[in-house]
Amino acid sequence: xxHTALATLLLLTLALPARAAAxxxxxxxxxxxxxxxxxxxxxxxxxxxxxxxxxxxxFMASIDRQDFLNRIYGLRLIDQRLKRDFNDSMEFQFExxxxxxxxxxxxxxxxxxxxxxxxxxxxxxxxxxxxxxLQFSYHDYELRLDENDxxxxxxxxxxxxxxxxxxxxxxxxxxxxxxxxxxxxLIDIQNVKEAELFQLRELLKAARDRQTRRYSDIYxxxxxxLRKQRIVVLQNVLLSRAVNNRRFLRxxxxxxxxxxxxxxxxxxMLLDFYVPTRQYDEAIAGLRRTYxxxxxxxxxxxxxxxxxxxxxxxADDAAAYAERALLFEPGLELGWWSALRARVATxxxxxxxxxxxxxxxxxxHTLRAEQLASDKSFAPLLAxxxxxxxxxxx
Length: 394
What we know:
- The protein is α+β, with helices and mostly antiparallel strands.
- 64% of the residues lie in helices and 10% in strands.
- The N and C termini lie far apart (92 Å).
- The protein has a five-stranded antiparallel sheet.
- The model has no long low-confidence stretch (mean pLDDT 93).
- The longest helix has 50 residues, at 3-52.
- A hairpin with a 4-residue loop joins β4 (151-158) and β5 (163-164).
- 30% of the residues are buried.
């Protein structure tokens, strides 16, 4: 054996243990990653299950209170007295504060875990909350594991409110006593005048106190540049919803649609403007942007898009979205309503009576000729042999 061959053999021999060690290290890392992914998945499932049983015990235990408070305060300039009072109140009011983030459910939580994903000790879970009148809310949870694999809920985006939960609380604390410096940090204008800051402070105070008339008067005098600020645009909508003023809400959504038409966080809110005004292309585009951000399949989103496609006159597309909704979640009521209407529009009357059966048997509706006759779109179904046979059998 030549010296060159001997040297090559020696190098290969030395490299084998190193390669084996590297492969073992990779296998251990992969095993650890799979272990963490399983923890995130099972804990998220358990969290949703406990919420559906009306218990917040696990949810509260999953929040690191100090970290949560740090997120609320952030870099915001909050009045020190308010900050001390807020800290003191947390011992007794923290659970109530967190539960307020679920107020849209009206005390009856119906949650569906749409998906969980993670990398290392960080994860995320998307949860849909079914609300009254076939409406939906979504929470996008930021999750983490500590060094002992303890599961934490770090924060969450409320897609129906258009912001993070801790941001909403932090902003409310600023609004409780808005100093000039604190308000300056809420906007992205560099050379704002003192008089404009004063107007903005007064606007936020009016929103805080839910004084809609005073709010409207100040807003009318506000500089157009300030009207475009995200904090103002969002507060317009949140205030109008809080006081349940439909005219005020419509005006606020018009402004939101003008200044933030492509913001995914605002798309669900803007449905209340786009659909009544028959701006169906804008409604679908907004839903698609939000849906893409979700990153998980959702029957409710498919059913909503189906309904809007049908309103546009695209019966085949509506039917396709409705079938996807039923594929993802066969028990979703809105999915069957979308399927019923889309199937009638495409002449699939056998499929339509299947939807009627589901809506009656599983969701408690009575949907005979007398109930359907007031809606002209059901006329072809009522005249069909399939409906006649179905009615006789029922």
